[in-house]
Design a protein that fits this description.
One of its GO terms (molecular function) is methyltransferase activity. This is Methyltransferase domain-containing protein. InterPro entries: Methyltransf_11 (IPR013216), SAM-dependent_MTases_sf (IPR029063). Keywords: Methyltransferase, Transferase. With 263 residues, the chain is of the alpha/beta class. The protein is 41% helix and 25% strand. The protein contains 10 helices and 7 strands. Strands 3-2-1-4-5-7-6 form a 7-stranded mixed sheet, with helices on both faces. Helix 9 runs antiparallel to helix 10. The protein is globular. It starts with 9 loop residues before the first helix and ends in a 6-residue tail after the last strand. The N terminus is likely disordered. It binds S-adenosylmethionine. S-adenosylmethionine binds next to helix 1.
């Protein structure tokens, strides 16, 4: 869910993704997404932007020995880690590829998921078109994306909280409000929208929030770029660590179905 992934080295990025997956909001939505995919033994399932392979073992367990799991990512460090984490699951294949041009045949996939990837892409619509191409009629896709424009952080200096959210939206995450767009993107790509869910990821603890939000690193970038005043931003950060803490943002999941010729 990071707003600061571009500032992280590969090892930090993997640690970050592990922490996000282990957090309560992370575990909750990943379980929901897995259930919504309605996986059956024998299915071929695709994870686009699989990262370090966080979700590949659960997908492998759901499709069984007779199924196949394909994890695709464009980052060699992620692929190496995904490969490493999948060694005990022979039905998992990890492949290098671009979400905008999937190295897969038309209608060759039963189920596909993409989890916090569209927010980073140059052309999310092209990625959706590719998912529509490779998923068979009747097949499902599951999308999960945050909406950073909804990030609310309580602080005595609410103007800096707003400025911080504005900085993430304008300068840090490429498609920061993609979460709210998922239904429209699915429809425009030719999917039927089976469901859209919005949940709030809420944090009452600064450290737990920081595992996801990485506020010191982001706020430093903000003052270095002139988006926030350094002294004001430092005081804002100190107030977060001292006082009662609350941060929340909306996280969207959407399920799309490829129409069958009869529907
Ligand atoms: C926030 S991480 C999420 C990883 C994983 N889905 C998870 O839930 O832990 C985003 C992933 O998308 C990958 N990614 C970004 N752009 C991509 C592209 N154009 N094609 C393939 N993978 C991409 C990144 O390398 C990274 O591993």
């Amino acid at each position: 869910m990071t707003p600061s992934s571009s500032t992280l080295r590969a090892a930090d990025q993997i640690t970050y993704l592990d922490q996000a997956a282990a957090s309560y909001p992370g575990r909750r939505y990943k379980q929901q997404l897995l259930a919504a995919l309605d996986l059956c033994p024998g299915h071929v399932v695709l994870d686009v932007g699989c990262g370090p392979g966080t979700d590949l073992p659960a997908l492998a367990a759901a499709v069984g020995d007779g199924g196949a799991v394909i994890g695709i990512d464009h980052d060699p460090a992620m692929l190496k880690q995904a490969q490493h984490r999948s060694t005990t699951h022979p039905q998992v294949t990890v492949r290098s590829g671009d979400a905008h041009a999937l190295p897969l045949d038309d209608a060759s996939i039963d189920r596909a998921r993409t989890d916090r990837v569209l927010q980073h892409l140059a052309d999310p619509r092209q990625a959706l078109a590719e998912l529509r191409r490779v998923v068979r009629p009747g097949g499902l896709v599951a999308l999960a994306e945050p909406d950073w424009d909804t990030l609310a952080i309580d602080a005595p200096d609410s103007a800096t909280s707003r400025g911080y959210t504005r900085y993430i939206v304008s300068d840090v995450v490429r498609n920061a409000d993609i979460g709210r767009q998922l239904g429209r993107l699915l429809t425009d790509a030719g999917f039927e929208v089976a469901s859209i869910e919005a949940t709030v990821a809420m944090f009452h603890d600064y450290q737990a929030a920081n595992d996801i939000l990485r506020m010191p690193a982001v706020v430093q970038r903000a003052w270095q770029s002139g988006a926030l005043d350094e002294n004001t931003a430092r005081a804002w950060l100190t107030s977060l660590t001292n006082g009662p803490f609350l941060a929340a943002f909306t996280f969207f999941t959407a399920i799309g179905r490829v129409p069958t010729t009869n529907s």
